[in-house]
Amino acid sequence: MESGRFELHSHSYYSKGKQIPCEALVSPCDAIKTAKKKGLSGIVLSDHDTIAGWKEASEEAKKQGILFIPGLEVSTKEGHIIGLGLSDSIKPGLTVEETVDKIREQGGISIAAHPFDIRGLGIGNMLDKTDAVEVFNTMSMDRISNILAERKAKKLGMPVTASSDAHTAEMIGASLTIMDAYDIDSVIREIMNKRVELVKRYLPMKIFVDWTRERMARSYDDIVQHIKDNYSAPKAWVSKALLHKFLFSKHPSVYNNVARFGATCSVFYSGVRMLWYL
Fold first, then answer.
1. Does domain 4-199 sit in CATH 3.20.20.140?
2. What is residue 278's predicted lDDT score, i.e. its pLDDT?
3. Under a CB-based contact definition with an 8 Å cutoff, are residues 50 and 14 in contact?
4. Residue ranges for the chain with pLDDT beneath 50
């Protein structure tokens, strides 16, 4: 059997942020079409705390002849966990242990998503409570957090995955988990038996800058309202001026360089944080 290429962590526009409501830009239908176009064998739709996109994704997957794997990125008390191969939603706000139990009750497996995420959204050293570890996440641009996740998983002898954490069509398939699988059960089996090959790839900074600009443009009114409600007058004026300049600059490429500088700084910051987890 020819090995399949699987995207195990992706989002649709049903995933919402807090201060910037628009988070992912692609519809469930377009996510499936993109995965098919890129030659993937299957894709997990793992929106944040919602399964609203499952029906649309499942129907499109049947049309495209690609495996749709129902998933969910659950916000536990300690951080994010991906439930893979689920049949229903799982409420956020439970502990890691409670969430893992809920996932297993549905016949799925739990994956520690970006466990050492620089934003503090992962579960850190609690990754040993889950079934597998996402040791490479394309969105983890600091890179150190991926290295630490892989080291920890290897030390613990845990199953591993790699994924894109895609929020746009361009991001889908950047990082993949390759395995001899053809349905949900075999995907779970191959991961748990550690019969996988990982494709690890970071994307050009421009893709992330363009994504940020678009989501901020779509959430413009919400951002301005947040600034108005929470910032002092001088800070609000500066913030709105910077927001406008970023969204409507005649020289958007400048921000690619700014983002690269920020990513470089994050490597050093993440390196210091890593010492805490060693």
1. yes
2. 65
3. yes
4. none
